[in-house]
């Protein structure tokens, strides 16, 4: 059947509107917070020594001269021309700083999300199948504990045990400052630096994937079609994966896709605990420095990430659940 | 003609053996190479960018790369000539400085008098930075000219400037003209800093690390550490874990009081205690009632028990602020200053001013019977200051005053202080604010401690006398009077003088010295011993 492009076009228009509103909020929000970038360059004592003219000149040198509306127009013009301003703190084009940090965030958050989702779904399904048994109760207890414990505490514990006590892993950073000059040495070094942050992030997020899968799976397993399949003698694995899990996966997939959108924003907590140079820390540092162009660029990137993940979810839902085909884009059902 | 500082220069130069530079350096090199450490890894608690003083500044880091005409700083009694070979005061307002020859910038260009002239004019006439007022207001340098000889610069001030060598020359880093004259916008300049200092900045990765290589031809001796590696670790737990695991050899973050005993138990680590040359202060908004009354501020000062704060919050790691403001360890501070805690006298003073508890709610009311509640603003990112503010609330309650703590994020706090949007605050002020006598004058003009827009006849008179004084001794006497006046009605009350404790792995490097106001991380720690002695660097106190 032919896809309904009118409905798809409406959806895209809707996303475009969301993007425009987000862009405007990205511009206004940093400026509504108390303080301005002058506070990054001058301490509160020195700033009092500046005359109004000196302050104005300093702001202009950062590209923040003119009225709010004038700055907004410049900002829109920059976006249209795919320029995103120059970071006040770093003195470099905001996108250049982002491209430098993004790979670190992706190699940290990507594997952690996958690990958390796959293990959460697998253990959740297993737990649901064994509902009420001691192994289910034990798993539930462990996962609820993971869910309740703050991520930074897990990270600190890992560092204290595996880095300080045993010396197996480095305590900070994404890569050692001094290298042996070989690619394999560098890759090994990067991997070593990633182990504890990925483990921390995975454990901190696996609980929600587990709980979601378990409850969704329990609902699925209670349906008549599962009872019917079991009565027909369908094998256990087929029953779990084809009848139970496949139907239970939709909310888990939605949850995953929502997280995927924010992946690009990194994890402030884990990146801070491990002094990891990702986007999460970049955003935090930019907020503290009131680095408006940098904040705008990172917020925009996150916005685009969320919208892209939503579009991707819309397009891939039918692959997970064929019933979605008939409702996603109008009436063109199967 | 008055001469000042020249004998001091000659003496010091002789001591350093810098007159016979070639021989001296050779000797130093020989001595240094014996103990030289190849690499030292110092965990850095902050990121100050590529050491562009217009976008980020940490004095000791800047000092690794740049040099000043005099060293080590304005915080010592008699800084010695550094990039300057000598300096002579020709009259009340005029100085001439002869620069050293044979010094090169890290990129190989020759250092010249033009660089000095350019730097001072750039600070004075260019975009504002923290050094601007040191050339444009206190003191005010009108003329900067290179003399015919080509290696001397003449400075003419708008009014007497007897401390130009000891304060200004010891504070302003010299920039390379051949680089900075080409910079269009210093706030967007991201090239690695190029200086004449003992270390060349060879790599900087934002929020990750710095790498420095020793300048082996350094004119004050070959550095004793070949390379400095500085990973940026902002989280304090991560920093101390890295130190314990041996990934770093020292931490620029000071050890908090509660961790001192556990670090002291680590066999591989040593703890060095230094004076922070800073004050944690309780500031008030002197433009609003009742803090606009000098006598009220004096009573407030009497009600502050700094010792209790030191004992309770710092576990003894510091000294009570009972010697007032500026810092008592500064040679420019009146040694007779005293701001004792006396609750009885404070109560009497409040009563005398008419602030009494008329409704028996344990808190005083204004003379016209209105209730008073004040907020103590504090940065939520500084837990020690938050706890200090909480204790202050209790102390003020003893005096019958109702204060409340208002903790806000660091940037909001800074914005509120800068815009006078506060009733009172607790914060730390560093060496530049509490040990630099010119800054004390400036802080009374700028609005930090007082504003030139508000009448203060006694202080204004003293400031005029200070500006007219043509000798350092005369200025010191007047400064002492100003400090007494200030502490009799302080707008920022000294709560305590913190002590800084640094932890380091002594097996890797154990030649740290303290340069007043800089702790143990300063360029002199990495220079030969005779240079350390020449700049009055001292051994830090080791903590058991």
Can you walk through the features of this model?
The complex is a heterodimer of chains A (334) and B (544). Chain A is mainly alpha-helical and 334 residues long. Chain A is built from 15 helices and no strands. Chain A has helices spanning 5-32, 38-41, 44-47, 52-61, 68-80, 94-129, 134-148, 151-165, 183-221, 224-231, 236-263, 268-273, 279-289, 292-320, 325-328. In chain A, helix 13 packs antiparallel against helix 14. By secondary structure, chain B is of the alpha+beta class. Chain B has a domain at 279-498: Dipeptide-binding Protein, Domain 3 (Dipeptide-binding Protein, domain 3). Chain B has 19 helices and 19 strands. Chain B has helices at 6-16, 21-35, 59-65, 113-125, 133-136, 164-168, 177-180, 236-245, 260-264, 294-302, 306-312, 343-352, 383-398, 410-418, 431-434, 437-446, 457-468, 472-488, 529-534; strands at 37-43, 70-71, 80-81, 84-91, 94-99, 141-146, 152-157, 199-205, 209-214, 225-231, 250-251, 269-275, 279-284, 318-320, 374-379, 403-408, 424-429, 492-505, 541-543. In chain B, the strands form 4 sheets. In chain B, strands 12, 13, 14, 15, 16, 17, 18 and 19 form an 8-stranded mixed sheet that branches. A 5-stranded mixed sheet of chain B has the order 8-9-10-1-11, covered by helices on one side. The relative contact order of chain B is 0.16. Classes of the chains: A mainly alpha (334), B alpha+beta (544). The interface between A and B is large, with 54 and 56 residues.
């Amino acid at each position: 059947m032919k896809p309904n492009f009118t409905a798809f076009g409406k959806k895209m228009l809707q996303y475009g509107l969301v993007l425009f509103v987000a862009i405007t909020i990205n511009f206004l929000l940093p400026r509504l917070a108390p303080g301005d970038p002058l506070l990054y360059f001058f301490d509160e004592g020195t700033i009092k020594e500046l005359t109004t003219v000196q302050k104005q000149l300093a702001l202009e040198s950062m590209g923040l001269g003119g009225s709010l509306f004038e700055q907004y127009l410049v900002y829109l013009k920059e976006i249209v021309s795919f320029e995103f301003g120059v970071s006040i703190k770093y003195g470099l084009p905001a996108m250049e700083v982002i491209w430098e940090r993004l790979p670190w965030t992706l190699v940290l958050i990507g594997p952690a999300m996958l690990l958390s989702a796959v293990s959460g779904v697998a253990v959740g399904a297993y737990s649901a199948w064994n509902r009420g048994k001691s192994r289910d109760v034990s798993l539930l207890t462990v996962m609820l504990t993971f869910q309740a414990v703050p991520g930074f505490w897990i990270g600190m514990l890992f560092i204290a045990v595996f880095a300080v006590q045993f010396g197996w892993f480095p305590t900070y950073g994404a890569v050692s400052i001094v290298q042996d000059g070989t690619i394999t040495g560098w890759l090994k070094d990067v991997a070593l630096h990633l182990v504890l942050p990925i483990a921390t992030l995975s454990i901190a997020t696996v609980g929600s994937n587990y709980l979601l899968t378990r409850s969704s799976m329990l609902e699925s397993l209670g349906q008549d079609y599962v009872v019917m399949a079991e009565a027909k003698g369908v094998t256990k694995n087929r029953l779990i994966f084809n009848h139970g899990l496949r139907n239970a996966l939709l909310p888990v997939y939605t949850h995953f896709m929502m997280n995927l959108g924010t992946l690009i924003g990194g994890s402030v907590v884990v990146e801070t605990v491990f002094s990891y140079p990702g986007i999460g820390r970049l955003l935090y540092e930019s907020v503290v420095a009131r680095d408006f162009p940098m904040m705008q660029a990172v917020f925009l990137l996150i916005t685009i990430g969320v919208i892209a993940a939503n579009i991707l979810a819309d397009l891939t839902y039918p692959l997970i659940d064929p019933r979605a085909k008939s409702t996603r884009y109008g009436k063109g059902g199967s | 003609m008055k001469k000042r500082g020249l004998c001091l220069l000659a003496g010091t130069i002789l001591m350093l053996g810098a007159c016979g530079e070639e021989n001296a350096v050779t000797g130093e090199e020989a001595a240094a190479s014996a103990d030289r450490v190849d690499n030292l890894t110092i965990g850095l608690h902050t990121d100050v960018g590529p050491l562009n003083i217009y976008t980020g500044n940490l004095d000791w880091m800047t000092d690794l790369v740049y040099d000043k005409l005099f060293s080590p700083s304005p915080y010592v009694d008699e800084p010695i000539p550094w990039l300057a070979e000598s300096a002579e005061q020709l009259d009340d307002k005029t100085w001439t400085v002869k620069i050293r020859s044979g010094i090169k910038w890290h990129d190989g260009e020759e250092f010249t008098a033009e660089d000095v002239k350019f730097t001072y004019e750039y600070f004075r006439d260019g975009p504002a930075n923290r050094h601007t007022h040191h050339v444009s207001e206190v003191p005010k340098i009108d003329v900067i000219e290179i003399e015919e000889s080509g290696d001397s610069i003449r400075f003419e001030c708008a009014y007497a400037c007897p401390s130009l060598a000891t304060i200004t020359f010891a504070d302003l880093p010299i920039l390379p003209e051949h680089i900075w004259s080409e910079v269009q916008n210093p706030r967007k300049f991201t090239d690695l800093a190029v200086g004449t200092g003992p270390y060349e900045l060879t790599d900087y990765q934002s929020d990750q690390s710095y790498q420095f290589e020793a300048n082996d031809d350094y004119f004050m001796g070959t550095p004793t550490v070949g390379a400095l590696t500085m990973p940026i670790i902002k989280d304090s737990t991560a920093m101390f874990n890295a130190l314990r695991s041996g990934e770093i050899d020292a931490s620029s973050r000071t050890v908090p009081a509660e961790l001192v005993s556990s670090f002291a138990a680590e066999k591989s680590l040593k703890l060095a205690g230094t004076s922070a040359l800073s004050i944690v202060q309780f500031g008030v908004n002197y433009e609003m009632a009742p803090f606009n009354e000098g006598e009220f501020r004096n009573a407030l000062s009497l009600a502050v028990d700094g010792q209790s704060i030191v004992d309770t919050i710092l576990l003894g790691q510091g000294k009570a602020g009972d010697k007032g403001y500026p810092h008592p360890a500064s040679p420019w501070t009146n040694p007779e200053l005293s701001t004792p805690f006396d609750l009885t006298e404070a109560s009497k003073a409040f009563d005398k001013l008419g602030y009494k508890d008329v409704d028996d709610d344990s808190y005083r009311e204004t003379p016209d019977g209105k209730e008073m509640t004040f907020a103590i603003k504090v940065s939520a990112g500084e837990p020690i200051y938050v706890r200090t503010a909480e204790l202050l609330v209790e102390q003020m309650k003893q005096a019958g005053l109702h204060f409340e703590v208002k903790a806000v994020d660091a940037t909001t706090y800074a914005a509120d202080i800068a815009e006078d949007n506060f009733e009172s605050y607790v914060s730390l002020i560093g060496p530049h604010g509490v040990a630099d006598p010119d800054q004390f004058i400036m802080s009374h003009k700028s609005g930090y401690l007082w504003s030139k827009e508000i009448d203060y006849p006694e202080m204004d008179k003293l400031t005029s006398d200070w500006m007219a004084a043509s000798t350092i001794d005369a200025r010191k006497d007047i400064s002492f009077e100003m400090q007494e006046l200030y502490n009799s009605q302080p707008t920022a009350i000294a709560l305590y003088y913190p002590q800084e404790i640094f932890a380091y792995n002594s097996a890797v490097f154990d030649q740290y010295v303290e340069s007043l106001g800089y702790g143990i991380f300063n360029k002199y720690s990495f220079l030969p011993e005779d240079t350390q002695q020449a700049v009055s660097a001292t051994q830090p106190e080791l903590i058991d």
